[in-house]
Batch of 2 targets.
Target 1
Amino acid sequence: MASYTEEEFAQMIAQLEDSGQNAGVCIMAEMKKDRTPSDKNKYYWMWREEKKKRQEVEGELSILKGIETNRVKELQQRISILEERDDEKQGALDRMGKENNKLYNEISQLKQDSES
């Protein structure tokens, strides 16, 4: 290791200060500033971000499933109401058909009676 006199050391510090570098800064601290995150650390943060996004999407999907389930139940209920109405109307239509047939038969009978 080289040994410097106080004068040489002072000159070196002055040169460093003139060049814009701080002579009193710890070399390790400067190295830590320049160091980029390691790949392991980088992948860890990417994993955490991905996990957070995945959880948000799962929550949204759960909400959508709940909404769709409610819609299906509402539609099934509406279908059953419409089927009941259809059954009622079909029953009324059947009764009207039978009544019309009965009246047609009565008219036919009356015509036959009046001709005879």
Note: The mean pLDDT is 82.
Target 2
Amino acid sequence: MSDRRCCASRTCGLRGAREYSDDISTPGQAIAAFVRAPHAHAMVERINAAAARRTPGVIAVLTGGDYVADGPWRASHRAPVNHSK
């Protein structure tokens, strides 16, 4: 005995009809982007985030230094916002 709802839900993803969180857009929505080293196991000596901070619409640029400054159990969720652009 087959369940037609189960089959329909399986093919839903194949047809591109499912809705994912990436498909949802709301006014004022913030989007996170992560930049990784282009080389596996590379030793990152420094990060120059100045250009990223100057980019219009960027709310915050967080690096490993921010994580270390906040401590491993107190990661800050409040990013400093520069409104004087």
Note: Residues 8 and 14 are 10 Å apart (CA to CA).
